[in-house]
Design brief:
This protein is mainly alpha-helical. The protein has a single domain, classed as Up-down Bundle (de novo design (two linked rop proteins)). Helices cover 78% and strands 0% of the residues. The chain contains 4 helices and no strands. The longest helix is centred in the last third of the chain and has 35 residues. The model has no long low-confidence stretch (mean pLDDT 93).
Length: 131
């Protein structure tokens, strides 16, 4: 199905991993009273991105893979919202918010590129396997 042997080869996953690591570090710096609120939500959303890319890759079916990638993309937007919340609560500064916004946007663009690649593969596969 794919020219990649493992999800760890995907640029979208590699960049999402970098984001997840950075988000985890930031989440761990949040005030103690946010441990089971914003910290937990941030970490779960960031983990969801890489996990969904990996799970979709393992499905070996174009449509399922694309659906998991769309879920990963939605989780990136969720991370962005949590980052804006952290900024609004004065847990992070404007520079950090902007750096993370740019990193999230980069991840979204890479994921959109991977989705485009999957759609093209699906189209080629369908054309080559029509009765």
């Amino acid at each position: 199905m794919s020219t990649f042997e493992c999800f760890t080869e995907l640029e979208a996953w590699k960049e999402a991993r970098k984001l997840r690591i950075r988000i985890t570090a930031i989440a761990n710096e949040l005030p103690k009273h946010e441990q089971f609120k914003l910290q937990d939500q941030l970490e779960r959303a960031a983990r969801s991105v890489t996990a969904n890319i990996a799970e979709g890759f393992g499905r070996h079916h174009f449509q399922e893979n694309m659906q998991y990638c769309r879920q990963a993309r939605a989780s990136l937007f969720e991370v962005l919202d949590h980052i804006i919340c952290a900024f609004d609560l004065d847990y992070i500064n404007k520079d950090t918010r902007e750096e993370l916004r740019l990193q999230i946007t980069s991840c979204i663009k890479l994921l959109n590129g991977y989705l485009k690649h999957l759609r093209a593969q699906k189209k080629n596969f369908t054309m080559n396997h029509e009765p």
